[in-house]
Design brief:
single chain, about 475 residues, alpha+beta, 434 Repressor (Amino-terminal Domain), 4 domains, transcription, DNA-binding transcription factor activity, ScfR_C, transcription regulation, ImmA/IrrE family metallo-endopeptidase
Length: about 475
């Protein structure tokens, strides 16, 4: 059995109750020395002690054993790679900070998030007047951080989805019919397909008053199935959604609705691709997205999204990040279970071949990339077609990127044809030109904010920003 250590959580619990180790030991009926050993992770947690803590302090035992420190450590390491910081602490120092000063670390990360949001808004405002809400975090940022803080994995939604598939088992190509039947039999909800004109450019409408789900003819089979699973979440996992959303830290009504939509989408993916089955298929095919999509009768994009969620304790897949952009480079969707720092509003590096994929629709483009701070990743990029409403909307493609840290590359089939010892294997990319410190980059489009590039009227370099 795996040992459980709760040092930082126990220290926070004690401090929250304004107790010394001696006072806590009296409450629990143990010695102060034992409490000290637990806080310093020199003793593992016993079941008896776990129950005593839960009983004496009226807390859910799951809150104690859940260790968010790995996510915090990953975010802290990523933040400290920003060029504004110098002499980055080593991993041991960062672990000590997370373990012994979690409140300070969280406050530091919050300050950096505010800095990041403010900087981006300043960049977008240009010379225009700075708005009053400059430092407020956008709903997109809060939702992304909420999913990231949960490791992009929600066990409650996974269990609810598995319960449905266990109650009504069926083959992947029969899931649509199963969902229609369940909606009708258990909730009295009928499903109707309507023309594009009747839907007023909506793809799905759930009318609660008439107990009807209207689906547009513009949706293909995988997306029709996905939308029915989304509606089923609203009906059968509503309390789970409310509980998760209430803990998100979002206050605006628009942000709360957006968070609920993303969580329901998570549930829909879990229904279409049950955890154990999709993990086994992914590992057997070396994460071949097309083969996984074929096995579960889902789309390429749905598989990419699902692969980022396979982070169940003791049954983890490769931790991926997923990014979707439009032709202008705007980020329209992003999920992350890695340390990869994603640009919130786009403007991503043109050296990254997610942009090149628009020139080769439907073709998977693999690439090894390296960030300025030395982090290395393997990515694949491919276009995704959007539902066609008219002749004018036939070319509304988006580009997708799925990636993982280089250390997982042996598990990815798309990387097997590459010579990993080549010196020129990695493309040098950045988050965006404003923040990238690289010199002599032929693709630079902006002067970097935090680095002075050398420039002279007597020499013309690759770009007009440096000589």
């Amino acid at each position: 059995m795996k040992k459980t250590f709760i040092g930082p959580q126990l220290r926070q619990l004690r401090r929250a109750h304004k107790q010394t180790q001696a006072q806590m030991s009296k409450v629990l009926g143990v010695s102060p020395a034992y409490v000290n050993l637990l806080e310093n992770n020199q003793r593992s947690l016993s079941v008896q002690m776990l129950m005593a803590l839960s009983d004496k302090y009226a807390i859910d035992w799951r809150e104690l054993v859940q260790d968010p420190s790995s996510n915090v450590l990953a975010e802290l390491r990523s933040v400290l790679q920003d060029p504004i910081f110098h002499d980055t602490p080593d991993l041991q120092e960062l672990r000590a900070a997370v373990d012994h000063a979690p409140g300070l670390v969280e406050n530091f990360l919050q300050v950096y998030r505010t800095h990041r949001t403010t900087l981006d808004k300043v960049l977008r405002q240009g010379r225009e007047r700075v708005p009053e809400n400059l430092v407020s975090s956008s709903p997109e940022t809060i939702i992304h951080d909420f999913f990231r803080n949960h490791g992009n994995h929600f066990p409650e939604l996974e269990r609810a989805a598995e319960k449905i598939r266990a109650e009504q088992p069926c083959a992947p190509d029969d899931v649509y019919a199963m969902l229609k039947d369940r909606l009708r039999a258990r909730h009295g909800v009928e499903v109707r397909i309507r023309t594009v004109e009747d839907m007023s450019e909506a793809l799905r409408i759930f009318d609660r008053e008439t107990a009807t789900v209207l689906l547009s003819q513009a949706l293909d089979y995988p997306n029709r199935t996905f939308q029915l699973a989304h509606v089923l979440c609203l009906l059968e996992a509503d309390e789970i959604l409310k509980g998760l959303v209430s803990d998100s830290g979002i206050t605006s009504s628009t942000g709360l609705a957006r968070c609920q939509v993303e969580l329901a989408n998570y549930f829909a993916s879990a229904v279409l691709m049950p955890y154990a089955d999709v993990l086994a298929t992914a590992q057997a095919t070396k994460y071949d997205v097309d083969r996984i999509a074929a096995a579960f009768s889902v789309s390429f994009e749905q598989v990419c999204h699902r692969l980022t969620t396979l982070q169940r304790r003791n049954a983890k897949g490769v931790p991926f990040f997923f990014l979707r952009i439009d032709k202008a480079g705007n980020v329209t969707k992003r999920f992350n279970s890695t340390t990869f720092t994603l640009a919130e509003f786009g403007g991503a590096c043109p050296v990254w071949n997610i942009h090149t994929s628009f020139r080769t629709p439907g073709v998977i483009l693999p690439q090894f990339v390296e960030l300025p701070e030395g982090e290395r990743f393997f990515t694949i990029s491919r276009t995704s077609d959007r539902p066609v409403f008219s002749r004018e909307s036939q070319d509304r493609r988006l580009a997708l990127a799925l990636g993982c840290e280089f250390r997982f590359v042996d598990e990815i089939g798309y990387a097997q044809s590459f010579n990993l010892d080549r010196e020129d294997l990695f493309s040098q990319i950045g988050i965006n030109c404003h923040l990238c410190p690289r010199q002599a980059c032929s693709q630079r489009a902006h002067q970097p904010l935090l680095v002075e590039l050398p420039i002279s009227p007597d020499r013309r370099g690759n770009t007009r920003y440096e000589s």
